[in-house]
Specification:
The chain is an alpha+beta fold and 393 residues long. The chain is 48% helix and 10% strand.
Length: 393
């Protein structure tokens, strides 16, 4: 069958094509892009469970990107696990929970600014600043730099599909991060206290067996990758979830307002139904056969998480957004990956989404859509780049 992620109808709504792929062509080869696509839940989980065969080294996009030292999306074991373990403590429940008061204060402040206007673009005015602020807080970077982080993250995310569009942003952010790393190392060498946060930890923690820290370029690469992984995706989690809750039937939003305890379930169903990342690539180290289709070694293979999340063999009525879906069923979604590459920042994303929806529902219980939404431009991301709403307290 004919399929390309860049076709206009697929860009507008990829899910009908995914359904057709699962039924007719679960391993699809797009010759122009030189990429295979897997669409069934089982096949994708099998890939994610076998990092010896399926490598990250050529990057998560459809092109063969040069390895970026420090970027965990280019790392294979054992380097990947070593790097992940170094950062893991900053993403544990207790560490993430400490960010909630400031995040909630920011959400309320943003909503205060919108109250008088009576309308807003929920993407630009609310969902966009929250994830970057929580990431800056986690890093220990001043919020004065938040706007620059937003611009860099947008460009770096778009660069997954169009590398030439991210060159300048990567240079600027790398220069900023490098200067911050060296400043922190200078403070440590002089015996001065360091700013609290992940960046200080990555700059000074023991990395090599001789006790030396991680090389500069690797810290920079790691910070860049964490920003890309957590920025647009969490923004899209918020906008996608609000979008579906406000769609007809509007009873979904009314239920959230009446029962805020449903918000975590709504976020999980949003992750399943509208995953912010439609798919990511792996490269196979050896020749493999998937669903009777030969995939030669060194092929780029797109794992369509969004298709797996609507696999009829895993989810009842998969195209329905269901606030009452069984939690055990919803938990099978692949929006945070699976296995050793499960998203390190999943708890932070869930916290940011929960706070965003709790504060929005409490402040504007009669919010409603007003105008057409627009999707994010990257063909492998799925979110609302424009979400116009009318705000009524």
């Amino acid at each position: 069958m004919k399929y390309s992620p860049l076709e206009p109808d697929v860009l507008a709504d990829p899910f009908p094509s995914y359904s057709e792929l699962r039924a007719r062509c679960p391993v699809h080869h797009e010759e122009n892009l030189a990429v295979f696509s897997l669409s069934r839940h089982k096949d994708i989980v099998d890939v994610l469970r076998d990092p010896d065969v399926w490598s990250n080294r050529n990057g998560p996009g459809i092109g063969f990107s040069p390895q970026s030292r420090g970027d965990m999306q280019h790392d294979d074991p054992p380097e990947h696990q070593k790097r992940r373990n170094l950062a893991r403590g900053w993403f544990l429940p207790s560490a993430v929970k400490r960010l909630e008061p400031d995040l909630r204060d920011l959400a309320r402040s943003l909503l205060d600014r919108l109250a008088d206007a009576g309308q807003a673009d929920l993407y630009e005015d609310y969902a966009l600043p929250l994830p970057v602020s929580s990431f800056c807080s986690l890093l220990g970077v001043t919020l004065d730099d938040r706007d620059r982080f937003v611009e860099w993250a947008d460009a770096l995310t778009l660069g997954m599909a169009y590398p030439e569009r991210s060159v300048e942003a990567r240079r600027e952010m790398s220069a900023f991060t490098l200067a911050e790393v060296r400043r922190r190392r200078g403070l440590a060498n002089d015996g001065h206290p360091l700013p609290d946060g992940l960046l200080s930890h990555l700059a000074t923690a023991e990395w090599e067996q001789d006790g030396s820290p991680m090389p500069d370029e690797e810290v920079v690469g790691m910070v860049n990758q964490l920003l890309v992984a957590g920025h647009e995706t969490t923004t899209s989690l918020i906008t996608n979830c609000v979008w579906r809750l406000l769609e007809s039937p509007s009873e979904r939003w009314d239920r959230i307002v009446a029962e805020p305890s449903l918000i975590p379930a709504a976020l999980e169903e949003s992750l399943r139904h509208d995953p912010p990342v439609l798919g990511l690539c792996r490269t196979n180290n050896v020749d493999v056969t998937v669903e009777s289709t030969a995939v030669p070694a060194q092929s780029k293979v797109m794992l369509l998480f969004a298709s797996a999340n609507r696999d009829e063999t895993m989810f009842a009525e998969p195209d329905s957004f269901d606030l009452d879906r069984e939690p055990g069923e919803t938990a099978q979604h692949l929006s945070f990956g699976w296995g050793i590459h499960h998203c390190l920042g999943s708890r932070l994303a869930r916290l940011t989404g929960r706070v965003a929806l709790e504060e929005l529902a409490a402040r504007f219980p009669r919010i409603h859509l007003e105008g057409r939404t627009e999707r994010v431009p990257s063909p492998f991301l799925w979110g609302r780049k424009r979400l116009p709403v009318a705000l009524e307290p």
